[in-house]
Amino acid sequence: MKCIIQIPCLNEAETLPAVLAELPRSLPGVDVVETLVIDDGSEDETVAVARALGVNHIVVHRRNRGLAQAFQTGLDTALRLGADIIVNTDGDNQYPGADIGRLVQPIVDGEADVVVGDRQVAAIAHFSPAKRWLQQLGSRMVSTFSGIELHDAASGFRAYSREAALRLTVVSRFSYTLETIIQAGKMGLAVASVPVGSNEPTRPSRLQRSMWHFIKAQASTILRMYAFYEPLRSFSYLAAPFLLSGLILWLRFLFIYLTSADADRFVQSVTIGTGLLVVGAMIMVLGILADIAGKHRQITQETLYRLKKLELEQAQEQNTGVAPGRNPVVVSEQGRPFACLPAALLVFVINEREEFLLLRHPRRTGWEVVNGALEANETVADGALREVQEEAGPDVRVRLLGPAHIQNFHYDRQVRYMLSLSFVAAYQSGEVAPGDDMAGSEAGWFDLATLEDESFPVLVPPTPELRWLFRRALALYRQWRDEQVLLQGPLPERPVNKYMPEASKE
Known about the structure:
Blueprint: E1 2-9, H1 16-22, E2 32-40, H2 46-52, E3 57-61, H3 67-80, E4 85-88, H4 100-108, E5 114-118, H5 129-146, E6 158-161, H6 162-167, H7 177-187, E7 191-195, H8 211-229, H9 231-259, H10 267-320, E8 329-331, E9 337-339, E10 343-350, E11 356-360, E12 367-368, E13 370-373, H11 380-391, E14 397-409, E15 418-429, E16 442-446, H12 448-452, E17 458-460, H13 468-480, H14 501-505
Parallel strand pairs: 1-2, 1-4, 2-3, 5-7, 10-15, 12-17
Antiparallel strand pairs: 4-6, 5-6, 8-9, 10-13, 11-16, 14-15
Helix pairs in contact: 5-7, 5-8, 7-8, 8-9, 9-10
């Protein structure tokens, strides 16, 4: 799973180093973390600072287009780069990077499509009482209009799944925060909220010129988006006063007409009431037409979603030769196609005291057996031994005893049906010194009783249901430790095809 952290910037050369310094380099459940800076027409050295600090991707707007369009550019770029999760944070260091792990976790767990960081506005010391009250009022309005319960709708510290990023399209220039929430609610996306912190302000807000400007802009966004997604209801609210007033005037005239002989003096009630009823009816007709247009808009949005998805899949197929979710295929000399499965390797290293070697990365939540992926042009046995030396240390020597388990698993949206190969290995010698992507990890030897205790945090194997693999690996270790078996013999220069021996002799 790939996560891209996007940072829209406008003249943020001074604060960008602090923002990047706080960003995590790894996240639980995420394989790759990259950074993306969207420069929205900055006039300072924002781009140069981003390059110097090693930002993975930089997109530049030649002129200022506004925060909302910079955000949309970030979403589109991150999708093209293959992001499964997109985190949005600000370039003014308003949001603490340490909370990104908490922000993405509901998406990693498959519980949400959009996660909003709740700054707990009532407790922010540098917010004035008026600003706190207005923020809370705005959040209640957005919650009402969108159907999503949120306490900090204006927070720009958010995480989006790939599915959400494909479906959301920002049309305003001012800000994306309220618009995307209302869109997500009307589209039926799962939205969650997690508590996050908030740093002290480094400069005055460029988005909020004044309190009145901010209120006017946000209120117009809320009303516009509500009318956009609920046109018939919106026009009904507008028509209701005219229809009700016209009906009251007509009822007044009818009552006087039936109870008084001098009703001619109240003909103006008929005239004005009829006019109001006509105006109300015209507004209702406009609402019906807008509702019909809204249905067409839904079809257009679905078409746009499918078009975006198709473009990304075609781009990936052009770059890799493999369509998303499909395994590559190789064809033999005789024209027979074979599926190629990417393979993950797990190595259960056991010492003579029948203890298992596990590693714990400082940025991860549990212990892991030695694990990695099979690389190109190596046998599975060579790959298992390589992973041991890379992760456990170059001096560690083990003897592969045999395979313990084989299964498929779903790696991500792009790699389906990955093969998982588990091996049992007998520890022989060497100091354990974790390296490669496990550099800085803690290492330990644990007995079977400890590992079968569900309170002991194990990350790989990935689920409690797979802890039986420890018991199986130990049983196989006891059975095979005294046997001398060559698991992988030398491969002949000319592959031998047992199904077509004549072809092998050519």
